[in-house]
Amino acid sequence: MAFSFSYNFLFSSAILLLLHSTSLVAEARSSVPISYLISQKLFDSIFLHKDDTACPAKSFYTYDSFIIASKSFPRFGTTGSLAMRKREIAAFLAQISHETTGGWATAPDGPYAWGLCFKEEVSPQSDYCDSTNQEWPCYPGKSYKGRGPIQLSWNYNYGPAGKALGFDGLRNPDVVSNNSLIAFKTALWFWMTEQKPKPSCHNVMIGKHVPTEADIAANRTVGYGLVTNIINGGLECGIPNDSRVNDRIGFFKRYGTLFKVDTGPNLDCAYQKSF
Ligand SMILES: *[C@@H]1O[C@H](CO)[C@@H](O)[C@H](O)[C@H]1NC(C)=O
Ligand SMILES: *[C@@H]1O[C@H](CO)[C@@H](O)[C@H](O)[C@H]1NC(C)=O
Ligand SMILES: *[C@@H]1O[C@H](CO)[C@@H](O)[C@H](O)[C@H]1NC(C)=O
């Protein structure tokens, strides 16, 4: 164990030096796996009701599938200080909780104990097909409605997510709601992947995103509110006291307490323009 730890340490130091010398990356990564920061016990105390009979996702989203999926994204929750790593994981879990919540104001254990209750969007308003997108053309008869922890939607997300993760997202979008490993991977893919002009949620939460001139003009200050802007700013940001934004923040505050980490500044996006 001791040998393997120092070996890993030397190995990652060597990689950092290598990367540093080619100035590709200047961030410190820990070799401590995220399961050290989020145990099964902590996961269970966060998602108190995900396996209730009332939840359509009952027994779908397991701790193991989350941890195994995270191994495909080795920078997730392993970058920066201990507080930064915990804060990133808490922010990710809070956002996926809002996306899949079964909670309501007077729900048992409060509204923020009901994340991961749904695996797919109920009564979608459309097939979420942007037919103007030529790069990721919709497959006839398929719906690109919200599925999985981040509620991946639109052909232009299913296509590239599938390509990155090794499934045909355009022909076979249903996989995201019946394979929990792929489901968690799509959420992590969305979190980790920059889609210009948006930065990645990951880079925002680890303080690596440097606001562009456009960001500054749009008042897109760095913090959890900017992550909300990346995920659904077009509908939720620039609105004072928006109930959806407040729900995202409520989850984050509860999880921050459970992780014993502060949430950082700029929690909302009430005064931000969307991308
Ligand atoms: C996945 O779910 C879809 C409907 O949501 C279903 O048609 C399909 O058979 C399922 N596939 C598997 C492998 O369970
Ligand atoms: C925000 O909205 C909630 C209802 O969603 C309301 O109870 C509360 O008073 C509002 N707060 C402010 C500062 O307007
Ligand atoms: C920018 O956002 C902050 C809160 O994050 C707000 O106090 C300020 O009024 C905003 N500025 C503009 C120009 O909207």
TrEMBL record:
Keywords: Chitin-binding, Disulfide bond, Plant defense, Signal. Residues 1-28 form the signal peptide. CDD domains: chitinase_GH19. The keyword Signal applies. Residues 55-77, 182-192 form the Glycoside hydrolase family 19 catalytic domain. PROSITE patterns: CHITINASE_19_1 (PS00773), CHITINASE_19_2 (PS00774). GO terms for molecular function: chitin binding. It comes from the Eukaryota. This is Glycoside hydrolase family 19 catalytic domain-containing protein.
